[in-house]
């Protein structure tokens, strides 16, 4: 936009085609204003992100118009490095598919701009190819570098997000994952209507006798047994300490209770020498799941109460919540 103001204030430049140069600079200002308006609108209204390509083309047109306007009006191209701004913006903020689109557009634009400067400006025509290479190289390399560091930052952010929702000992989800994933999975073909809360019996004795390393091994065994007995779409989490939560699509209470008993026997067989067993509380909901955020706490409360009953009745058993 600054170039547009310059073109209007200095209409009689020493370039080869000052009138055309002035018109191009005005076009630069118009494209810049439209691009800026679209950018601010996109930030405020996410559905407009589908106009990313339009925004990129407007920015490229503004840059091309500004540089060529300077060329025709003054015979110079000091503003050619504004191409770098468009490249950095695309590499840093636009979808990755548009990064390489911008690299191609940038190379084509720089080649055209430098060639026209050789024809209508002060640059020697014979050296325009070398001039284009010297100008394009830092722009392209900067775009590649920005895209690379952006990719690394995004990968690290995704890794941190996964780590924040995963129990490091078992690889299962954690308490946060339980609450975040439960609602999302209700929109699938099979809704999760049953919840099992499991707790290791006599676990303190394992820690006292074999140390925390032994206790960790027992916890990992239970996690493995859970994976074997759960369906692929079920949600498994370590709720904390030696307590686990299994959320499943099994809506028949007795069928789910039978699955839990099979799980308990499988686990007991694997750790028989340690004398560790599992108690469980089972809760099934028949309520509509239009509001999963309210259903999950109720399922947890009922399953926890049933687990308490199983513990009070002598452990190593599963109880169905009333």
UniProtKB/TrEMBL annotation:
Keyword Transcription: no
Domain of life: Bacteria
Assigned GO CC terms: plasma membrane
Entry's Gene Ontology BP terms: cell adhesion involved in single-species biofilm formation; negative regulation of bacterial-type flagellum-dependent cell motility
Transmembrane domains' residue ranges: 20-41, 53-74, 128-149
A Gene Ontology molecular function term of the record: diguanylate cyclase activity
Keyword Transmembrane among UniProt keywords: yes
Span of domain GGDEF: 191-322
PANTHER family in UniProt: DIGUANYLATE CYCLASE DGCM-RELATED (PTHR45138:SF9), REGULATORY COMPONENTS OF SENSORY TRANSDUCTION SYSTEM (PTHR45138)
Protein name: GGDEF domain-containing protein
Upper lineage: Bacteria, Thermotogati, Deinococcota, Deinococci, Deinococcales
């Amino acid at each position: 936009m600054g170039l547009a103001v310059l073109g209007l204030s200095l209409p009689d430049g020493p370039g080869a085609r000052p009138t055309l140069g002035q018109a191009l600079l005005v076009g630069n200002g118009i494209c810049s204003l439209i691009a800026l308006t679209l950018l601010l609108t996109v930030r405020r209204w996410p559905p407009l992100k589908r106009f990313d390509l339009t925004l990129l083309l407007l920015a490229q047109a503004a840059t091309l118009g500004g540089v060529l306007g300077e060329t025709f009006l003054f015979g110079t191209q000091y503003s050619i490095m504004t191409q770098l701004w468009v490249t950095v913006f695309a590499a840093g903020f636009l979808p990755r598919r548009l990064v390489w689109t911008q690299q191609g557009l940038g190379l084509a634009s720089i080649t055209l701009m430098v060639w026209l400067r050789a024809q209508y400006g002060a640059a020697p025509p014979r050296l325009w190819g070398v001039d284009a290479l010297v100008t394009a190289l830092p722009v392209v390399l900067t775009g590649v570098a920005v895209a690379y560091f952006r990719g690394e930052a995004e990968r690290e952010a995704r890794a941190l997000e996964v780590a924040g929702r995963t129990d490091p000992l078992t690889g299962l989800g954690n308490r946060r994952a339980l609450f975040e994933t439960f609602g999302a999975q209700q929109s699938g073909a099979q809704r999760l209507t049953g919840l099992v809360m499991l707790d290791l019996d006599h676990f303190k004795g394992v820690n006292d006798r074999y140390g925390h390393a032994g206790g960790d091994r027992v916890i990992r065994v239970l996690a493995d047994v859970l994976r074997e007995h759960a369906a692929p779409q079920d949600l498994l989490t370590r709720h904390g300490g030696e307590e686990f939560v299994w959320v499943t699509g099994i809506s028949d209470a007795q069928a789910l209770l039978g699955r839990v008993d099979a799980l308990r026997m499988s686990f007991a067989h694997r750790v028989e020498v340690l004398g560790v067993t599992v108690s469980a509380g089972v809760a099934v909901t028949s309520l509509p799941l239009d509001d999963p955020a309210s259903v999950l706490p109720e399922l947890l409360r009922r399953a926890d109460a049933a687990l308490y009953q199983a513990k009070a009745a002598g452990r190593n058993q599963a109880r169905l919540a009333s």
